[in-house]
Amino acid sequence: MARGKGRAKYSAKLPEKMYSYFSSFQDPGAPSFNKFARSIGVTVGDLERFRKHREFEEAWRECGEIRRDYLIDCALTKRHDSSFSKFIIQYEEDAEKLRDENDGISVTLEVIEK
User: Fold this and answer.
1) What's the predicted TM-score (pTM) here?
2) What is the per-residue pLDDT across 5-60, written as a single tens digit (0 to 9) for each?
3) 46 to each of 3, 35, 106, 109, 114, how far by Cα in Å?
4) In this predicted structure, what is the pLDDT of residue 28?
5) Under 8 Å CB-to-CB from 51, ≥6 apart: which residues?
6) How far apart are CA 59 and CA 61, in angstroms?
7) How far is CA 26 from CA 23, 31, 74, 82, in A?
8) Which of 19, 58, 77, 84 has the fewest CB atoms within 10 Å, i.e. is most exposed?
């Protein structure tokens, strides 16, 4: 999955690899798509491009839930500031809604007769 001169290429093993990364995360901080991308030598933009693959999109959403659960647990156990965890979760939910709304193209056509 290393990045060369061109764009990174999708691999069928990538969804499982990402899920494994998020579900077994032990490093300081919280798991993130940015950290995962760097760990495999690609960009977050590459990962977002891979979301067009159904299996990867499903893994992406599940990893988002794992991350959300991790942040909630950290807030409840006071490992992280609860108001900051809440801010991060809300920010990510808003960004995902915006992405979903902008996924399609909306065109309004008005016909005016003379």
Assistant:
1) 0.71
2) 458 899 999 999 999 999 999 888 889 999 999 999 999 999 999 999 999 999 99
3) 10, 13, 25, 34, 49
4) 81
5) 57, 60
6) 5
7) 9, 8, 13, 20
8) 77
